[in-house]
Specification:
The protein is an alpha+beta fold. It has two helices and five strands. Strands 1, 2, 3, 4 and 5 form a five-stranded antiparallel sheet that branches. α1 crosses α2 (83-132).
């Protein structure tokens, strides 16, 4: 069944994309001269399940730098010199893989919901058929 609380829907599995680097939000780490919190703006607010998948995909790459979803942003903590050559390509790759995995999740959830609805409909038909066989005494009280 779709994960409605996490924003999944059988009708929409919109792809999340990185649309730009937000230079206003990107800032130097207070505790370091070289490290920055680099903010990439996303095309939309990703559902919780999408974020969970992203985190797993990012960890699977075994990248030394931490990346996370913060609202409609992907944030990576790294030196600026690593962004263009290393982390931005990796982020794009992981976002694409996350979109694919999320799309599969939504499709499976929709199929499971449909299966459950079919079972429920059949159960109702079985109950109605059994009920039609019952004969109740119509005594006056």
């Amino acid at each position: 069944m779709p994960d409605e609380q996490n924003g999944a829907s059988s009708e929409t599995a919109a792809e999340i994309e990185i649309v730009r680097l937000n230079s206003d939000k990107t800032r130097k780490d207070d505790d370091s001269d070289a490290m920055y919190h680099v903010y990439f703006e996303l095309s939309g607010f990703p559902p919780n399940k999408w974020r969970t998948i992203f985190e797993g995909q990012w960890q699977a790459l075994n990248v030394a730098r931490k990346a996370m979803v913060d609202g409609t942003f992907l944030v990576i903590h790294c030196p600026l010199a690593e962004v263009a050559s290393t982390h931005f390509p990796a982020l794009k790759k992981v976002v694409a893989a996350t979109n694919e995995a999320y799309r599969n999740y939504v499709q499976k959830a929709a199929a499971e919901l449909e299966r459950r609805e079919d079972v429920w409909i059949q159960e109702r038909k079985d109950v109605d058929a059994m009920a039609a066989q019952l004969r109740f005494d119509k005594r006056k009280q």
